[in-house]
Amino acid sequence: MPAISASNAVSSVHTGPDGSVVDASPAVAAATPWRLPAWLLGAVFGAALQLQQPALWPGGAYGVILVAACVVGWCARAASRSRRAVATGAAAPAAALALGAGVLAMFALCGLRAVDYAGHGLAPALEGQDIRVTGVVAAMPQTNEAGTRIRVDVEAARLNGAPVQLPPRIDVAWYGGPFRDAAGALDLQRPPPALKAGDRWALTVRLKAPHGLRNPHGFDYELWMWEQGVQATGYVRAGPKDEPPELLAATWRHPVERVRQSVRDAILERLARDVNGDDPARARIAGVVVALVTGDQRAIDRADWDVFRATGVAHLMSISGLHITLFAWLAALMVGVLWRRSTRLCLAVPAPSAALAAGVVLAAAYALFSGWGVPAQRTVIMLAAIAVLQLSGRRWPWPQVWLWACAAVVVADPWALAQAGFWLSFVAVGILFATNTVAVSAYPSSVKRHFYALIREQWVVTLALTPLTLLLFGQVSVVGFAANLVAIPWVTLVVTPLALGGVLWAPLWNLAALSLQPLASLLQWLAQWPWAVVFLPAAPLWAGMLAVAGGALLATRLPWRLRLLALPLLWPALWWQPVRPAAGQFELLAADIGQGNAVLVRTATHTLLYDAGPRFSRESDAGHRVLVPLLRALGERVDTLMLSHRDADHTGGAAAVLAQQPHAALVGSIEAEHTLQALRPVRPCLAGQRWEWDGVVFEVLHPHPQPDDAVAARTLRPNALSCVLRIAASGAVASAPVALLVGDIETPQEQALLARGAALRADLLLVPHHGSKTSSSPAFLDAVQPRTALVQAGYRNRFGHPAPEVLQRYRARGVEVVESSRCGAATWASSTPAAVGCERDTGRRYWQHQMAPRTE
User: Fold this and answer.
1) Which residue in 344, 149, 328, 357 sits closest to 233, CA to CA?
2) Which of 851, 852, 845 shows the shortest CA–CA distance to 223?
3) Residue 586: is its pLDDT beyond 80?
4) pLDDT tens for residues 304-357?
5) What b/e sequence results for 680-709 when a residue is b if at least 16 CB atoms lie within 10 Å of its CB, and e otherwise?
6) Mode of pairing for the β-strands spanning 724-728 and 738-741
7) To which H or E segment does residue 710 belong?
8) Residue 540: how many CB atoms within 10 A of its CB?
9) 555 and 435 in contact (C-beta within 8 Å)?
10) 236 pLDDT band (50/70/90 cuts)?
């Protein structure tokens, strides 16, 4: 688990058997029991409180709060110095003042940092413009089958010859070959050359603000970009009509990244020369070695990540806190041995102090080489905080050591509080501290003692973190305990040292790859067990917090009679089931999947998924990235997957969904030779098909069985064969709420439906063809008369969907238009047909992208 690294780090603090030590300074000892912990706890609470803000306040407001914090802090200090207060036992009010000062100070400082950062964001007027940028490649370029993605530190930017202000750091993709621009026109792009970190380039780019997909229980891409310091994304314009990219110079502005790139390329050249050849397994092993040495997690294949997550060892397969802590320990050990050889050095600085400081410094250097990722930053800060305590002669009780390290990380990076890794690390560290015991001394043999300690620590961490993992990810690895018992010592003590040693002597990379193969086989075998991973519906926060408390109680060394009290705390989270619609009613969830369609329809006991979203790349699609996690979080068992037609933006995620939903029937307008036919028999959708689930009527209105001529049918565009599905609540009631899902039908198909007299009136309409100009004809809209129209289209997509003139048609008829790019995932229920819930309006935070309102 990620937290084990933290436990190794903090275990270097020399606490007594009871875990409590008195500080050497009497004055500090008197103040420490309440004042410093209150300050530290206040700092953590203040950052957590500021992160809950839906919008930032003006900088002046945070400045006033900071002044107030100083006043309250002065009062707390004055109260703590009062002998009378100490003598009369009135320290509690002073502690409360210190806590309040910490909350106010950290709230203000975090807010000021956020205001300053947000002030450098991309101006909306610059989105989609061709801007000439001069900048330096700031990180290792990432290459895939589509092109190369680079992170650029901007030095200058010009629009139509005039200077403009861009964010300091942007992230752009350089595609090669055919590429459709924002207007949908096909353009041939110059392929990217071999890009290197530190190179200065002049590039023409089109940018947009970071805009992620917003779905229930989904990944917060915009927070991740905020922490990365990237405030604009886009792509390089390298077509024949564009000003060509120009390499200006090779610099050493980012020497660490340049060295990392050279090491990464050397590993791939040595271990995966046939990355496109006959041995893909060898290339996948090479990707793991790359991740262990350089921290480049993208080098690991997606299928391997699935195995690592299923077996609970994902934290080991890249630079983690565990690796950095081990490196710090080994570095401190070596420096201590060498330091003791010099009497003069020992007289100047004691060997333990020199070893401790050197271990932290070298660990920081290692973390910097690994890419200085957020987990690595947390580990280095924690190691440094603990080293400061030891070097200053302070020996605190473990709760204060834990709180000191936690506060140090939060002060450096307040937004770490919103990351799962932070909570996994510090909860595990706290549990290991709280359950620390001298029981291992009963084993005289050091081997037995260390083996017992490993078993016990892993068991304690598993008990404590299983509920937290369930709360954060909705899944638990049943085989994780066994897998980690093998993987932690093997990866940490064998694979990683060999991989790092390859930097000095390349043949060691071959040994590292060879040592990974038996472990990979074992993990693959464990991941294939029927119950290797258990997925449970996402419980509400209150149930999750109770379960975390229950896990902590189970992990303590209390008598088992008391530990059994944890079972009632675990029950709500383990048996939670989301509320389903009543009989005769249904709900829709239009997932935010970018440019494509994916609508989840739920009745009292059945579920239908209409379309499965787009395919983003060879390694990524909407099914794997969005729909499968969403279905697991909601606890859904899909009965039918209906694919409206064969276009990739509707079928791209189908394979991942079908793999996760083995009992789902497949229905759709896709040809017999489609690749999905190999996964599941496909029943065509045809007008006249009708069925009923829980009192809700489903009826297919299109395509019509005509024409009978198969050759003529093949000449139709896929859009023309889109399945049109009408869903009506309480089918016997004429005025029952209705939803109409129409895929990518265009004006000719709309006219055909009108000519056949199809029942088109609906309360909710999935806008045809994502709002294309070729659909949503006036006559069709007059027949449907929707109250709400859902548009599933990507933010600033290259097709310009939805078209402004189409939106005007809806507004002219008083129809509420809900766009997924503005709303995120949209929810609609037949029981309340006038209301639409937007995921972007639920739990809004200031770092999330807020689009400007559309102008009429």
Assistant:
1) 149
2) 845
3) yes
4) 999 999 998 988 887 767 778 878 888 888 999 999 999 889 989 999 999 999
5) bebebbebeeeeebbbbbbbbbbbbeeeee
6) antiparallel
7) helix 710-715
8) 12
9) yes
10) very high
Q: Whole-angstrom Cα distance, residue 659 to residue 783?
A: 39
Contacts 24+ apart (CB under 8 A), 509-514: 509/267, 509/270, 509/271, 509/289, 510/270, 510/271, 512/289, 512/292, 513/271, 513/282, 513/285, 513/286, 513/289
**What element of type H or E holds 79?**
helix 59-81
The amino acid at 260: R
* CA-to-CA dists, residue 10 to 283, 334, 404, angstroms: 37, 20, 11
Cβ neighbours for 153, distance < 8 A, ≥ 6 positions apart: 135, 136, 138, 168, 169, 253
Q: How far apart are CA 792 and CA 669, in angstroms?
A: 20
CA–CA separation, 520 and 493 (whole Å): 16
Phi, psi of 599 (to 5 degrees): -125, 125
CA distance 516 to 286: 10
Q: Which of 660, 620, 658, 622 is nearest to 641 (CA)?
A: 658
Distance, in Å, from the CA atom of 450 to the CA atom of 457, rounded to the nearest integer, reads: 10
Of all residues in the chain, the percent with pLDDT exceeding 70 is 87
- The whole-angstrom separation of Cα 472 and Cα 95 is 33
Helix, coil or strand: residue 554 = helix
Q: Regarding predicted confidence, which is higher, 240 or 747?
A: 747
- Residues 501, 494: Cα–Cα separation, whole Å: 11
Asked if residue 359 lies in contact with residue 331, where contact means CB atoms within 8 angstroms, the answer is: yes
The phi, psi pair for 201, rounded to 5°, reads -125, 155
Average model confidence (pLDDT) for the chain?
Answer: 86
Tell me how far apart the alpha carbons of residues 624 and 306 are, in angstroms, rounded to a whole number.
10
For residues 592 and 630, give the distance between their C-alpha atoms in angstroms, rounded to a whole number.
Answer: 11
Position 103 pLDDT exceeds 80: yes
Contact between 652 and 622 under an 8 Å Cβ cutoff? The reply is yes
Dihedral class, residue 57 (left if φ above 0, else alpha if ψ from -120 to 50, else beta): beta
Q: What is the pLDDT of residues 534-580, one digit of tens each?
A: 999 999 989 999 999 998 888 888 888 888 888 999 999 999 999 99
Q: What is the pLDDT of residues 485-537, one digit of tens each?
A: 899 889 888 998 899 899 999 999 999 999 999 999 999 999 999 889 999 99
CA 437 to each of CA 11, 366, 441: distance values in angstroms, whole numbers, following the listed order:
12, 32, 9
State the DSSP H helix or E strand holding residue 283, giving kind and residue range, or none if neither.
helix 280-294
584 contact partners, CB below 8 Å, separation of at least 6: 604, 694, 695, 696, 729, 730
Are 270 and 509 a contacting pair, CB within 8 Å? Answer: yes
Query: Per-residue confidence at 2, pLDDT binned at 50, 70, 90?
Result: very low
Q: Give me 416's structure tokens.
A: 């770490």
- Distance CA(532)–CA(478), nearest Å, equals 5
Number of helices (H), then strands (E), in the chain: 32, 29
Question: pLDDT-based confidence at 218, cuts 50/70/90?
Answer: very high
Sequential DSSP letters for 32-74? TTTHHHHHHHHHHHHHHHHTT-SSPPPHHHHHHHHHHHHHHHH
Q: Which letter does DSSP use for residue 216 in this model?
A: T
Nearest to 391 by CA among 331, 321, 332, 324: 332
The tokens describing 351, both together, are 């060997």
Quick one: tokens of 437? Answer: 């015991």
Length of the chain: 856
Hey, what amino acid is at 382?
M
CA dihedral over 257, 263, 268, 273, signed as positive or negative: positive
* Phi, psi at 205, each rounded to 5°: -130, 155
Return the amino acid letter for 504: L
Query: Which residue did the predictor score with more confidence, 240 or 806?
Result: 806
